[in-house]
Amino acid sequence: MGNASRSVDTILPSISGNTSGTSGNGAWYVSQVTVTASASDPPPGSGLASFQAAVDGSWSAYGGPITLNDGNHTVELLATDNAGLENSVGMSFQIDTIAPTTVFTDPTGTTWATGTITLSGVSSDLNLSGAEISYNGGSSWSGLSPDGGGNWSTTWDTHTVSNGSYSVRA
Ligand SMILES: [Ca+2]
Question: If exposure means fewest CB atoms within 10 Å of the residue's CB, which of 39, 57, 124, 151 is most exposed?
Answer without folding.
Answer: 57
